[in-house]
């Protein structure tokens, strides 16, 4: 398919970007052409265009109207004043998290708040909205008739943020003490002192996953200790001999290591130097980042993948899209050279924010996966300390149950490296 996009400085770069993602999503082979008379598809603001663009929307963006209330009234579509739906611009707005640009309110960790999102307002956080927009665009335009759209069978990207290694000696011991299990209190206390910390359990996690043909990524903090009254980094030293041994063992397997960018002011390069191994991906600690401020830091550091784009307060789609994608640099008006794998499911969302038990978490995750069997890479995060036998024992059982469900339901796993090779179109 030869595609002509009107060379309008208001929207050319943005539409070229989002149309490329649309074609990648649908498996459409295409080339862009500057010859309007020799093309198969015309995209412009003209009323006779095959796919029409709303200049009104981009004029609003140029006047810093980023808040979703400026664009979504009764439903999540960019609707031009004369009444047509601009599918491509809607997808661009959502997938690029434009609603988060220069937002004045932040939570205690300087994050964009879920309660300020259009997902909260319209109660559609669990909907793969951009996929629905792409589907509607594909069905509603006759120029796509006769093209067989591909459908990607969803996979699971499994990961573990390693925030705490030494916390078991206090948290698990106290858990047993409250239950008046002095035998288990002594067992945990002595095991952490004599052998190794119970939360240094990467070998256990890998063994559990291997039983279901799963591989995961471990994201490591290189900075230790308290940062402020509300922020802590790790409780372990990244250069501890036992820690280094675990990292090196992982590096020799199909499992992978990554950087868990700390809450300190260190640069990426400084933290990568401290980690001291060749890695591909990152996730921000506490999900403490602002996409439009921090994505350029990820690219500048030479990383090829990030997996931070999720709401801590709710599971689902922070940017309304289920597949990995190259984010858009709104300042330079070009795609970044790394791939973002949005974070959809996190244990602490259920335990700390939603405050539901493990069985309810399993129910919600299975329902989410059943509703997204296609066109998703579902990113699932379990912290290593949640895969333990005492304080978080029910969440450990939930992890095992979910592994069994993923396997039986046909959700294969996908690793960082596989995601980069398959979805990073700019590298």
Polypeptide structure, described:
This protein has about 425 residues and is α/β, with parallel strands linked by helices. Helices cover about 35% and strands about 10% of the residues. The chain has 15 helices and 14 strands. The strands form 3 sheets. It has an 8-stranded parallel beta sheet with strand order 12-9-8-7-6-5-14-13, with helices on both faces. It has a 4-stranded parallel beta sheet with strand order 2-1-3-4. Helix 3 (about 85-95) packs antiparallel against helix 5 (about 130-140) and helix 13 runs parallel beside helix 14. The longest helix is centred in the last third of the chain and has 16 residues, at about 395-410. The protein is elongated.
Set down the secondary structure blueprint:
Blueprint: E1 2-5, H1 12-26, E2 31-32, E3 41-44, E4 51-52, H2 55-62, H3 87-95, H4 118-122, H5 129-140, E5 155-162, H6 168-178, H7 182-194, H8 202-210, E6 216-220, H9 241-251, E7 256-261, H10 268-275, E8 281-284, H11 291-300, E9 305-306, E10 328-329, E11 334-335, E12 339-340, E13 345-346, H12 347-353, H13 358-370, E14 377-381, H14 393-408, H15 416-423
Parallel strand pairs: 1-2, 1-3, 3-4, 5-6, 5-14, 6-7, 7-8, 8-9, 9-12, 13-14
Antiparallel strand pairs: 10-11
Helix pairs in contact: 1-3, 3-5, 6-7, 13-14
